[in-house]
Amino acid sequence: MARMHPWKRPAGWWLRNPRYLLFQAREVGGVLSALYGLVLLYELRQYHRGEDAFAWFQGILTTPPVLILTLVVFAFVLVHAVTWFMLIGKAQPVALTKKPIPWERAFAGNLVLWAVVSAAVLYIVFGGL
Amino acid sequence: MAGGSAEWGPGREAVRAGAERLQEEREAVLEPIVWGLFSLGGFITAFLLPVTIFFLSLAVPFGLWPADRIAYGAFAARFADPLVRLFFLVLIGGSLFHGMHRLRHILLDAGLKRADPLLIALCYGLAVLGSLAALYYTFGFEFVRLPFL
């Protein structure tokens, strides 16, 4: 029986090139966003349990270790978001005009949209500044 | 010319083995669905998650907001709005399907190919159950009461 030897990426391939590093950072950011999704889910659960349960969980979220972890998650989620906005115009060039819109323009448009959406979330979900 | 015997040919076995394996593979049904949900979830998390983390987890501890802005009373007042509930449902479901799909593929890339059925069950299982729980906490609790949630 002939054995097949598919090529394997050497370990640590993503450390050699800053682009690959950023790619991996985005992947990690994607996973960490699910982690925060679970935090949100647990927060809703505590909300339904009542005021004491909700306050208890809020207290845990503000302890230094959890706060540091949250900062790390926030940093990765930001990388995830910004690199994603850069990607949209590259992976699928916007071709509404004769020449596809350059990705930088799509990126800028995404950033503006991001700011508008974030402001809307701030006002609708958190009741404004 | 490619005469010779049909019995022996280096490489043929491998080609045939590949062909047989291809036939055994079922049509990909799951992959397009989960990649679609991954993409949609990435879109949702990219736009909605940073602002949420900042104001729900960071603004108060870093002294930008007074604590009562995210306390129970304020949360209850906002949560009465169906749009706010929809926001939490979409964000939780989107982030879970996005992140769990990503986690599965990171683990597959790390060499856990043989464990894929288990990874599928665990990753998408968590995403599905988490989304159902989110559906219960946002809208379902008004219609049914589940004592275990």
Give a brief rundown of this model.
The complex is a heterodimer of chains A (129) and B (149). Chain A is mainly α and 129 residues long.
SSE inventory with pairings:
The complex is a heterodimer of chains A (129) and B (149).
Chain A lengths: L17 H32 L1 H11 L2 H28 L11 H23 L4
Helix pairs in contact in A: 1-2, 1-3, 3-4
Chain B lengths: L11 H13 L5 H29 L13 H8 L2 H28 L6 H23 L11
Key descriptive features of the protein:
heterodimer, A: 3 helical TM bundles of succinate and fumarate reductases, 4 helices, flat, B: mainly alpha, 5 helices
Give a verbal description of the structure.
The complex is a heterodimer of chains A (129) and B (149). The longest helix of chain A is centred in the first third of the chain and has 32 residues, at 18-49. Chain A has helices spanning 18-49, 51-61, 64-91, 103-125. Helices cover 73% and strands 0% of the residues of chain A. Chain A has 129 residues and is mostly helical. Chain A has a single domain, classed as Fumarate reductase/succinate dehydrogenase, transmembrane subunit (3 helical TM bundles of succinate and fumarate reductases, Up-down Bundle). Chain B has one domain: Fumarate reductase/succinate dehydrogenase, transmembrane subunit (3 helical TM bundles of succinate and fumarate reductases, Up-down Bundle). Chain B is built from five helices and no strands. Chain B has helices at 12-24, 30-58, 72-79, 82-109, 116-138. The mean pLDDT of chain B is 87. Chains A and B meet through helix 1, helix 2, helix 3 and helix 4 of A and helix 1, helix 2, helix 3, helix 4 and helix 5 of B.
